[in-house]
Amino acid sequence: MESYAGIAVRTTAVYLFLLVMVRIMGKREIGQLSPFDLVVAIIIGELAAVALELESDLAKALAPIALIALYELLLSYASLKSHVLRRLIAGTPTVVIENGRILYENLRWNRYNMNDLLSQLREKDVFSPAEVEYAILEPSGRISVLKRSQHRAVTPADLHIDTGYEGLSLPLICDGVVQLKNMEKLSLSMDWLNDQLRSSDVHDVKDVALALIDTGGKLYISRKSDSSGQAAPWDVIP
After folding, report:
1. What is the pLDDT of residue 188?
2. Do 94-151 and 170-237 have matching folds?
3. Which one has a higher pLDDT value, 31 or 159?
4. Which of 1, 17, 58, 223 is the 20 to 30 Å CA partner of 96?
């Protein structure tokens, strides 16, 4: 029977080894996850599978999972305090395009090939590096793109047009259930909500798929279906 100390040593060794391996593989392999998150996901998944085996000692099978969870908490807290540790765990952003010029050495350093770069640029509606002012390879493996000003869509700021404040719309009804916390937050009553629903020919809250209210007080109502069972239209109440 292996001792708990042996389990701790083995778990620590596997954890550190996988973390190093994932960092060596580079950003392309880890996708949306940071190396830290990926290691935790892999190890916990494997250890959970072991814990499900009937012939295994449950206490010893669960001990490594608890230890990994502890490591995650400690490293997460430490990375909040230490910029150096945060860079070691999560990595740093890398500029891969500057003023329309591809920085090939930076791509090669991250084991990121040209097809990966062009594919992610297309996902950003960019079909030529010449359109890009800066492209940054994030620690998650995704590309952030700043287009050249000539290739960006015109905004009200470009036309010197003042616009009003636009905050987040809040759901008042989701899947036929009234969101009471949001109603209270906005100081709205059920009587008011029922009046708005009746004005849209909705007589039962359960018939509403989604009701949203924006910061201007405009109410959007989408019904689940009409009397024929077909998808119902939506209404916007000013």
Report:
1. 92
2. yes
3. 159
4. 17
pLDDT, tens digit, 9 for 90 and up, residues 21-77: 666 555 544 555 666 677 777 777 777 677 555 455 656 767 777 787 777 778 777
Euclidean distance between CA atoms 96 and 113, whole angstroms: 11
Domain ranges across the chain? 4-90, 94-151, 170-237
Q: What is residue 192's predicted lDDT score, i.e. its pLDDT?
A: 92
**CATH class, 94-151 region:** alpha beta
CA-nearest of 60, 42, 55, 80 to 4 is 60
d(CA 199, CA 110): 58
Burial class of residue 98 (count of CB atoms within 10 Å of its CB; 0-12, 13-18, 19+): middle
Q: Which residue, 236, 207, 238, is CA-closest to 223?
A: 207
> Could you give the dihedral angle defined by the CA atoms of residues 211, 215, 218 and 222, in that order, rounded to the nearest 10 degrees?
-20
Element of type H or E holding 121:
helix 114-123
* CATH fourth-level superfamily of 170-237: bsu07140 like domains (3.30.240.20)
